[in-house]
Amino acid sequence: MMTFFVCQAQCSCNCGPFIPYLAVNFMDRFISRMEIPVWKQGKPWILRLLVVSCLSLAAKMEDTDFSISNFQGDEAGFIFDNKTIKRMELLILDTLDWRMRSITPFSFVHFFISLSQLKDPALTRTLKDRATEIIFKSQNEIKLLKFKPSIIAASALLVASKELLPLQFPSFKFSISAFECVNEVSPEFHSLVCLFLHERFSAQPYWW
Protein backbone atom coordinates (compact mmCIF):
# COMPACT_ATOMS: atom_id res chain seq x y z
CA MET A 1 0.00 0.00 0.00
CA MET A 2 2.77 2.44 0.89
CA THR A 3 4.59 1.78 -2.35
CA PHE A 4 1.35 2.51 -4.19
CA PHE A 5 1.17 5.89 -2.43
CA VAL A 6 4.79 6.56 -3.41
CA CYS A 7 4.07 5.77 -7.07
CA GLN A 8 1.07 8.08 -6.97
CA ALA A 9 3.27 10.86 -5.61
CA GLN A 10 5.94 10.21 -8.24
CA CYS A 11 3.38 10.62 -11.01
CA SER A 12 1.91 13.79 -9.52
CA CYS A 13 5.24 15.56 -8.96
CA ASN A 14 7.01 14.08 -12.04
CA CYS A 15 10.19 13.37 -10.09
CA GLY A 16 12.82 10.84 -11.08
CA PRO A 17 12.98 7.31 -9.67
CA PHE A 18 15.74 8.01 -7.14
CA ILE A 19 13.55 10.04 -4.78
CA PRO A 20 10.76 7.41 -4.55
CA TYR A 21 13.34 4.64 -4.22
CA LEU A 22 15.08 6.45 -1.36
CA ALA A 23 11.74 7.24 0.27
CA VAL A 24 10.81 3.54 0.30
CA ASN A 25 14.22 2.79 1.79
CA PHE A 26 13.51 5.26 4.61
CA MET A 27 10.06 3.76 5.20
CA ASP A 28 11.36 0.19 5.36
CA ARG A 29 14.07 1.13 7.84
CA PHE A 30 11.69 3.21 9.95
CA ILE A 31 9.00 0.53 10.16
CA SER A 32 11.59 -2.13 11.00
CA ARG A 33 12.49 -0.10 14.09
CA MET A 34 9.08 1.17 15.12
CA GLU A 35 5.78 -0.66 15.17
CA ILE A 36 2.95 1.37 13.63
CA PRO A 37 -0.49 0.13 14.78
CA VAL A 38 -2.20 1.80 11.83
CA TRP A 39 -5.40 -0.16 11.53
CA LYS A 40 -5.85 -1.29 15.14
CA GLN A 41 -6.15 2.27 16.38
CA GLY A 42 -8.21 3.45 13.43
CA LYS A 43 -5.57 5.81 12.07
CA PRO A 44 -4.96 4.91 8.42
CA TRP A 45 -3.73 8.46 7.80
CA ILE A 46 -0.46 7.57 9.57
CA LEU A 47 0.70 5.59 6.53
CA ARG A 48 -0.03 8.51 4.23
CA LEU A 49 1.81 10.90 6.55
CA LEU A 50 4.80 8.55 6.67
CA VAL A 51 4.90 8.36 2.86
CA VAL A 52 4.72 12.13 2.41
CA SER A 53 7.37 12.75 5.09
CA CYS A 54 9.77 10.17 3.62
CA LEU A 55 9.32 11.63 0.14
CA SER A 56 10.03 15.08 1.55
CA LEU A 57 13.21 13.86 3.25
CA ALA A 58 14.34 12.04 0.11
CA ALA A 59 13.81 15.17 -1.99
CA LYS A 60 15.86 17.18 0.50
CA MET A 61 18.65 14.60 0.38
CA GLU A 62 18.64 14.91 -3.42
CA ASP A 63 18.64 18.71 -3.05
CA THR A 64 15.60 18.93 -5.31
CA ASP A 65 13.28 21.91 -5.53
CA PHE A 66 9.83 20.71 -4.59
CA SER A 67 6.58 21.65 -2.94
CA ILE A 68 4.99 19.52 -0.25
CA SER A 69 1.72 19.81 -2.14
CA ASN A 70 3.34 17.87 -5.01
CA PHE A 71 3.61 14.83 -2.75
CA GLN A 72 0.04 14.97 -1.52
CA GLY A 73 -3.03 13.86 -3.36
CA ASP A 74 -6.60 14.10 -2.22
CA GLU A 75 -7.49 10.55 -3.30
CA ALA A 76 -7.60 9.34 0.29
CA GLY A 77 -8.77 12.64 1.73
CA PHE A 78 -5.59 13.23 3.76
CA ILE A 79 -3.85 16.59 3.39
CA PHE A 80 -1.21 17.52 5.97
CA ASP A 81 0.14 20.93 6.89
CA ASN A 82 3.87 21.68 6.93
CA LYS A 83 4.06 21.62 10.74
CA THR A 84 2.65 18.09 10.93
CA ILE A 85 5.01 16.86 8.22
CA LYS A 86 8.05 18.43 9.90
CA ARG A 87 7.18 16.70 13.18
CA MET A 88 6.98 13.38 11.37
CA GLU A 89 10.27 14.09 9.59
CA LEU A 90 11.97 14.65 12.96
CA LEU A 91 10.56 11.39 14.29
CA ILE A 92 11.91 9.54 11.23
CA LEU A 93 15.31 11.23 11.55
CA ASP A 94 15.57 10.39 15.26
CA THR A 95 14.48 6.79 14.68
CA LEU A 96 17.07 6.34 11.94
CA ASP A 97 19.76 8.09 14.02
CA TRP A 98 20.00 10.74 11.28
CA ARG A 99 21.67 8.21 8.98
CA MET A 100 19.97 9.18 5.75
CA ARG A 101 22.69 8.71 3.13
CA SER A 102 21.66 5.24 2.08
CA ILE A 103 23.68 3.44 -0.58
CA THR A 104 21.31 2.40 -3.36
CA PRO A 105 21.82 0.65 -6.71
CA PHE A 106 21.61 4.06 -8.37
CA SER A 107 24.95 4.88 -6.75
CA PHE A 108 26.63 2.30 -9.02
CA VAL A 109 24.77 2.71 -12.30
CA HIS A 110 27.02 5.42 -13.76
CA PHE A 111 30.18 3.45 -12.99
CA PHE A 112 28.94 0.20 -14.55
CA ILE A 113 27.66 2.02 -17.62
CA SER A 114 31.14 3.45 -18.14
CA LEU A 115 32.38 -0.13 -18.58
CA SER A 116 30.21 -0.53 -21.67
CA GLN A 117 32.36 2.06 -23.50
CA LEU A 118 29.34 3.24 -25.49
CA LYS A 119 30.12 6.22 -27.69
CA ASP A 120 26.56 7.19 -28.52
CA PRO A 121 25.04 9.43 -25.79
CA ALA A 122 21.52 8.48 -26.87
CA LEU A 123 22.23 4.75 -26.47
CA THR A 124 23.89 5.37 -23.13
CA ARG A 125 20.86 7.30 -21.93
CA THR A 126 18.48 4.60 -23.15
CA LEU A 127 20.49 1.91 -21.38
CA LYS A 128 20.53 3.92 -18.17
CA ASP A 129 16.80 4.63 -18.32
CA ARG A 130 15.93 0.96 -18.83
CA ALA A 131 18.24 -0.18 -16.03
CA THR A 132 16.76 2.49 -13.76
CA GLU A 133 13.26 1.24 -14.51
CA ILE A 134 14.28 -2.32 -13.65
CA ILE A 135 15.90 -1.21 -10.39
CA PHE A 136 12.85 0.77 -9.34
CA LYS A 137 10.44 -2.06 -10.11
CA SER A 138 12.63 -4.58 -8.30
CA GLN A 139 12.41 -2.73 -5.01
CA ASN A 140 9.27 -4.61 -3.95
CA GLU A 141 10.79 -8.02 -4.66
CA ILE A 142 11.55 -9.60 -1.27
CA LYS A 143 13.91 -12.11 -2.88
CA LEU A 144 16.29 -9.29 -3.77
CA LEU A 145 16.75 -7.95 -0.24
CA LYS A 146 19.74 -10.20 0.36
CA PHE A 147 21.72 -8.72 -2.54
CA LYS A 148 24.08 -5.78 -2.31
CA PRO A 149 23.14 -2.56 -4.17
CA SER A 150 26.14 -3.01 -6.49
CA ILE A 151 24.93 -6.47 -7.51
CA ILE A 152 21.42 -5.21 -8.23
CA ALA A 153 22.80 -2.34 -10.33
CA ALA A 154 25.11 -4.61 -12.33
CA SER A 155 22.35 -7.14 -12.94
CA ALA A 156 19.84 -4.51 -13.99
CA LEU A 157 22.31 -3.12 -16.52
CA LEU A 158 23.05 -6.57 -17.91
CA VAL A 159 19.35 -7.26 -18.37
CA ALA A 160 18.90 -3.87 -20.05
CA SER A 161 21.88 -4.43 -22.36
CA LYS A 162 20.69 -7.95 -23.26
CA GLU A 163 17.35 -6.46 -24.24
CA LEU A 164 18.48 -3.24 -25.96
CA LEU A 165 22.05 -3.91 -27.14
CA PRO A 166 22.36 -7.64 -27.86
CA LEU A 167 25.47 -7.22 -30.02
CA GLN A 168 27.36 -5.37 -27.29
CA PHE A 169 26.04 -7.61 -24.52
CA PRO A 170 28.84 -10.25 -24.46
CA SER A 171 31.63 -7.70 -24.06
CA PHE A 172 29.60 -5.69 -21.55
CA LYS A 173 28.90 -8.84 -19.52
CA PHE A 174 32.60 -9.71 -19.55
CA SER A 175 33.57 -6.24 -18.32
CA ILE A 176 31.05 -6.25 -15.48
CA SER A 177 31.73 -9.84 -14.42
CA ALA A 178 35.47 -9.11 -14.21
CA PHE A 179 34.88 -6.34 -11.70
CA GLU A 180 35.97 -7.40 -8.21
CA CYS A 181 32.77 -6.69 -6.27
CA VAL A 182 30.80 -8.72 -8.82
CA ASN A 183 33.27 -11.51 -9.40
CA GLU A 184 33.62 -12.35 -5.71
CA VAL A 185 29.89 -13.12 -5.49
CA SER A 186 29.52 -14.71 -8.92
CA PRO A 187 26.92 -17.38 -7.97
CA GLU A 188 24.42 -14.93 -6.46
CA PHE A 189 25.15 -12.45 -9.23
CA HIS A 190 24.11 -14.87 -11.96
CA SER A 191 21.07 -16.06 -10.03
CA LEU A 192 19.91 -12.47 -9.71
CA VAL A 193 20.39 -11.86 -13.44
CA CYS A 194 18.24 -14.90 -14.20
CA LEU A 195 15.58 -13.67 -11.80
CA PHE A 196 15.47 -10.29 -13.51
CA LEU A 197 15.17 -11.93 -16.93
CA HIS A 198 12.46 -14.29 -15.76
CA GLU A 199 10.41 -11.43 -14.30
CA ARG A 200 10.97 -9.27 -17.38
CA PHE A 201 10.04 -11.78 -20.09
CA SER A 202 7.57 -13.97 -18.15
CA ALA A 203 9.03 -17.06 -19.82
CA GLN A 204 11.93 -19.40 -19.31
CA PRO A 205 14.90 -17.53 -17.88
CA TYR A 206 17.89 -16.93 -20.11
CA TRP A 207 21.07 -18.79 -19.15
CA TRP A 208 24.57 -17.84 -20.24
TrEMBL record:
<dbReference type="InterPro" id="IPR013763">
    <property type="entry name" value="Cyclin-like_dom"/>
</dbReference>
<dbReference type="InterPro" id="IPR039361">
    <property type="entry name" value="Cyclin"/>
</dbReference>
<feature type="domain" description="Cyclin-like">
    <location>
        <begin position="4"/>
        <end position="94"/>
    </location>
</feature>
<dbReference type="Pfam" id="PF02984">
    <property type="entry name" value="Cyclin_C"/>
</dbReference>
<dbReference type="InterPro" id="IPR036915">
    <property type="entry name" value="Cyclin-like_sf"/>
</dbReference>
<protein>
    <recommendedName>
        <fullName>B-like cyclin</fullName>
    </recommendedName>
</protein>
<keyword id="KW-0132">Cell division</keyword>
<comment type="subunit">
    <text>Interacts with the CDC2 protein kinase to form a serine/threonine kinase holoenzyme complex also known as maturation promoting factor (MPF). The cyclin subunit imparts substrate specificity to the complex.</text>
</comment>
<dbReference type="InterPro" id="IPR004367">
    <property type="entry name" value="Cyclin_C-dom"/>
</dbReference>
<dbReference type="Pfam" id="PF00134">
    <property type="entry name" value="Cyclin_N"/>
</dbReference>
<dbReference type="GO" id="GO:0051301">
    <property type="term" value="P:cell division"/>
</dbReference>
<comment type="similarity">
    <text>Belongs to the cyclin family. Cyclin D subfamily.</text>
</comment>
<keyword id="KW-0131">Cell cycle</keyword>
<keyword id="KW-0195">Cyclin</keyword>
<dbReference type="InterPro" id="IPR006671">
    <property type="entry name" value="Cyclin_N"/>
</dbReference>
